[in-house]
Amino acid sequence: MSLLEHMDTGQASAGKTSAVPTENDRPLVELSHVEKHFGKLHVLKDINLKVNKGEVLVVVGPSGSGKSTMCRTINRLETIDSGTIRIDGQPLPQEGKELANLRAEVGMVFQQFNLFANKTILENVTLAPVKVRHMSKKDADDLGMDLLARVGVESQAAKMPSQLSGGQQQRVAIARALAMQPKIMLFDEPTSALDPEMVNEVLDVMMKLASEGMTMICVTHEMGFARKAADHVVFMADGRILEKGTPEQFFDHPQTDRAKDFLSKILTH
Ligand SMILES: Nc1ncnc2c1ncn2[C@@H]1O[C@H](COP(=O)(O)OP(=O)(O)O)[C@@H](O)[C@H]1O
Ligand SMILES: [Mg+2]
User: In the beta sheet, which residues pair with residue 240?
Assistant: First the structure.
């Protein structure tokens, strides 16, 4: 069964071949001229980005280049100074219920899994559907078990997060984000806090999601994943997008010295 069975995925790639523009041609996520400062630090500089429905965008770049901040602005965990961010055509609201609704459309998975330590694995997944979506406990439990099965940790449902490995916890974090039936999933270095032997079990779940048509923005330096899953790669440095291209264009033919230097560092170990 598909990971996306419960989700309203629409027609993942409908519109791509159609000559007449439809709402499926509209980017699901669009950043235009986004600027952001932390005090004097200019962290996002004229960020322009479009991600269409069903596309996977991989974001790479050196530490401190603004990758996490960009992700956080997309579900409004950070405000922006100027520019616009649209999700499915709608500008991000400033606050209130609309913001909560819109944020629910954007699932986010962080480097640190951030599971609720005092809740069971199943409760971690069902909490938001019950509280935010007002789903019945029974329906939420069914959905939760289904999602846990799909990320391969259903046998852990009654345990507490600390009883699971990092790879298992991160898969639970993915299931928890999916439980809100997001239109898009953001992953911010989801495997970089994991022991090496656990990286693949998380990437496999992400690959499966991508192949099922989930729209994804992934900050990751996992080259194998990027080459297999990404439609586009963007390279950020010093708050700017310096390169955009297909994985082949970027990894095999980087244009800027910054990107060449960055790639030589991540490829040589
Ligand atoms: N809440 C914050 N307050 C002040 N500076 C921040 C904050 N978050 C990030 N920064 C700074 O913004 C820059 C970009 O950070 P970040 O988006 O985390 O980059 P990346 O994810 O690419 O490593 C860094 O210089 C970082 O120190
Ligand atoms: Mg980061």
Answer: 237
Atom of ligand 1 nearest to the CA of 71: 17
Q: How far apart are CA 147 and CA 26, in angstroms?
A: 29
Ligand 1 centroid to 66 CA: how many Å?
6
Q: Which residues pair with 226 in a beta bridge?
A: none
Q: What confidence tens digit (pLDDT) does each residue in 109-142 have?
A: 999 988 999 999 999 999 999 998 899 999 999 9
Tell me the C-alpha to C-alpha distance, in Å, between residue 43 and each of 19, 133, 176, 228. Answer: 38, 34, 29, 29
Spatial distance between the Cα atoms of 121 and 175, rounded to a whole number of angstroms: 10
- The CB density around residue 154, as the number of other CB atoms within 10 Å, is 16
Alpha-carbon distances of 148 from 131, 141, 144, 152, 241, rounded to whole Å: 19, 10, 6, 6, 36
Instruction: Report the alpha-carbon distance of residue 116 to residue 96 in Å, rounded.
Output: 24
Q: How far apart are CA 87 and CA 32, in angstroms?
A: 12
CATH architecture of 43-265: 3-Layer(aba) Sandwich (3.40)
pLDDT, tens digit (0-9, with 9 covering 90-100), for 88-116: 998 887 777 777 777 788 999 999 988 99
Residue 174, helix vs strand vs coil: helix
Contact 206, 216 (CB under 8 A): yes
The count of C-alpha atoms lying within 13 angstroms of the C-alpha of 128, restricted to the half-sphere facing its C-beta, is 21
Pocket test for ligand 1, best of 34, 47, 69 (most atoms within 8 A of CB): 69
Answer whether 43 contacts ligand 1 (Cβ < 6 A).
Answer: yes
